[in-house]
Amino acid sequence: MTRILLTFIAGSLAASAALAPTTAHAQAAGTPASTAAAPPFTVARTGPVPSGRSMILIPGFLSAGEVWDGTVARFRSDYDMHVLTLAGFAGSPTTTADPYLATVRDAIIQYIRDHRLDHPVIMGHSLGGFMSLWIAATSPALVGPIVAVDGVPFLSALGDTTMTATRAGAQAEMMRTAMSGMTREGLAAQTRMAMMQQVKDTAWHVKGARWGAVSDPNIAGRALAAMLTTDIRPELHRIRTPVLMLMAGNGLNPEHQATSLARYEGQLRTVTNARVVAASKALHFIMLDEPVFFLDTVAAFLTRAATPR
After folding, report:
1. Sheet containing 274-279: which strands, arranged edge to edge?
2. Could you read off the pLDDT of 49-105 as tens digits, one per residue?
3. Which of 72, 94, 243, 287 has the highest CB neighbour number within 10 Å of its CB?
């Protein structure tokens, strides 16, 4: 995951210089219509089910809720599915709310309360996985089982386990500035390049470019910078529910996979009931590359989580 995002970062810096004549021009060309009152996410909901159970699905960086279509198809008969697309991503109305990620976190928590969802399953991919863990640590009594799909509590420490949020700040600010200054075309090109390393099916590469073309570069820069500098590991001991984390392992030899697995597990070490599973044939979008493995692993986890012990 770290290697993939660092590749995206490097490409973003290069594309920013090549494609953005000035920052002001790039923002005008690349930012969808905006309003300060826009909600921090949009929701597609399947509707209540007899069990009364609910599941909230949070996509990752610049992604649309459609990445969860297979998950919705598998679980919609058992759960009321709430599929989010975050503000400013993939055509979802943008927002000027700041800080962006903390605003999204608090809004999802309020959404759970407003809709009286009873300990919903929270599942997120990448940035969404980080968000699912943050929600569980912030409001532990409100949520049910957590599934983080190749998303971790502190991204910057995956590559360098000694990294701190303070030390990550300079690179994060450089990223925020560069990405915020990209044109719509530049962000689309970079999203497609990133997707080529994150998912095997080429159809998703095209979709990724479309998402980038209608995403807000300013939101993209702020969101990525915040994720690089937000370390929620000290808060994770408050999580009360079971946590499943899936790690992308495609292309890793056994030694490297073991090292990566240990680093993922290390980030969850203060969570009482947490398990990390490697998807050895999947790139970053595990639910798209290994759908059968992914859905079966999640289903087994949810069954165990619901069984009294």
Report:
1. 41-45, 80-86, 54-58, 121-125, 146-149, 243-248, 274-279
2. 999 999 999 999 999 999 999 999 999 999 999 999 999 999 999 999 999 999 999
3. 287
Total Cβ atoms within 10 A of residue 266: 14
Query: Is the Cβ–Cβ distance between 104 and 128 less than 8 Å?
Result: no
Q: Which tokens sit at 213?
A: 């073309």
The count of residues in the chain is 309
List, in order, residues 6 or more apart from 156 with CB less than 8 Å away: 163, 165, 168, 172, 228, 229, 231
Q: Do 161 and 177 meet the contact criterion of CB atoms below 8 Å apart?
A: no
pLDDT per residue over 179-193, tens digit each? 999 998 999 999 999
**CA separation for the pair 257, 169 (Å, rounded):** 28
The DSSP element (H or E) to which 52 belongs, if any, is: none
Read off the pLDDT of residues 5-62 as tens digits, 9 standing for 90 and up.
Answer: 544 443 443 333 333 332 222 222 333 334 445 569 999 999 999 999 999 999 999 9
Which segments within 108-224 are labelled E, that is strand? Answer: 121-125, 146-149
Please list, in sequence order, all residues whose beta carbon lies within 8 angstroms of the beta carbon of residue 54, skipping any fewer than 6 positions away: 79, 80, 81, 82, 117, 118, 120, 121
* Residues facing 44 on adjacent strands: 83
Sign of dihedral through CA atoms 144, 150, 155, 161?
positive
Distance CA 249, CA 46 (A): 32
For β-strands 41-45 and 80-86, DSSP reports them as: antiparallel
pTM passes above 0.85: yes
Contacts of 159 (CB under 8 A, 6+ apart): 2, 3, 6
CB proximity list for 220: less than 8 A, separation 6 or greater: 61, 62, 88, 89, 179, 180, 182, 187
